[in-house]
Structure formats: C-alpha cells, structure tokens
C-alpha cells in the first residue's frame, strides 16, 4: 500500500504533469521543425547549391562504387566504406533551427517574467499604525465609562 500511495503522489504532482506535457509538445514540435527543414529550408538550400537531396551526399573512402548511386545502394556494396555526410547536414540544420526556436521562446518567457517583476505593486493605502489603533481603543474605553 505504501508503494502505491507514494507512486500516486509522485505521478500526480504538478512537476511530473508539466514534464509530461512538455515531452508531448516537444515531440510534436520536433515534427514541425523536421517538416520546416525538410520541406521548406532544404529545397531552398538545395536550389542554391544545386543538390536536390542532401541525404544521398556521400564520399567513398574504400571500395569500388559507381558514381550516381543512392546512399542505400552504395552501402549495400560489399567492402565499400562510405562517409555519408548528407544526412548529418540535414540533422545539423534541423538542430540549429530547433535551438533557435527554443532560444526565442526562452527569451520571450524571460522578457515576460522581467515585466512582471518590474511592474510596481499596487498601492495599498497605509492604515493606522499600531499606536494609533491603541489610542483609539483607549479613547473608546474612556468614553464607555
């Protein structure tokens, strides 16, 4: 019974729920960034460089591989040693975009937090001091006699 109770307290705590929501949103956000990289950025970069698909960029380090083969076909050749750098370029661009977006989100959140801290606290009218209250009580007690 103690284990179940402890687990329930752990699982229902706000931090765990926030983490779960963050992981789910992060997974979806990663898919969005992948789509931005693969569907928007990479075609533009490929148009400038002239290579339509980075995933098939590679250099043959060892072996007899014909030029023009896809990366999968080149790797399938027995004895071939392939230095496949194209997919790394795609993943690197994806990482840089994701890091940029996360940086912008954190920067925006920090700016909002600073504005909350810098906002002056609402003016609370000053009430009577303790001495003034005691004097009023004393006067009321004198008047009752």
Q: Which labels suit this protein?
A:
two-stranded antiparallel ribbon; 145 residues; 2 strands; 70% helix; Non-ribosomal Peptide Synthetase Peptidyl Carrier Protein, Chain A; mainly alpha
Descriptive account of the structure:
This protein is mainly alpha-helical and 145 residues long. The protein has a single domain, classed as Large-conductance mechanosensitive channel, MscL, domain 1 (Non-ribosomal Peptide Synthetase Peptidyl Carrier Protein, Chain A, Orthogonal Bundle). 70% of the residues lie in helices and 5% in strands.
Shape: elongated
- Overall domain count: 1
Class inferred from helices and paired strands: mainly alpha
What is the fold named in CATH at topology level? Non-ribosomal Peptide Synthetase Peptidyl Carrier Protein, Chain A
Distance N terminus to C terminus? 65 Å
Strand content: under 5%
* The first-level CATH class name: Mainly Alpha
**Strands of the biggest beta sheet: in what spatial order?**
1-2
GO molecular function, one term: mechanosensitive monoatomic ion channel activity
Pfam families: MscL (PF01741)
Keywords: Cell membrane, Ion channel, Ion transport, Membrane, Transmembrane, Transmembrane helix, Transport
Subunit structure: Homopentamer.
Short account of what is shown:
The protein has 145 residues and is mostly helical. The protein has one domain: Large-conductance mechanosensitive channel, MscL, domain 1 (Non-ribosomal Peptide Synthetase Peptidyl Carrier Protein, Chain A), CATH 1.10.1200.120.
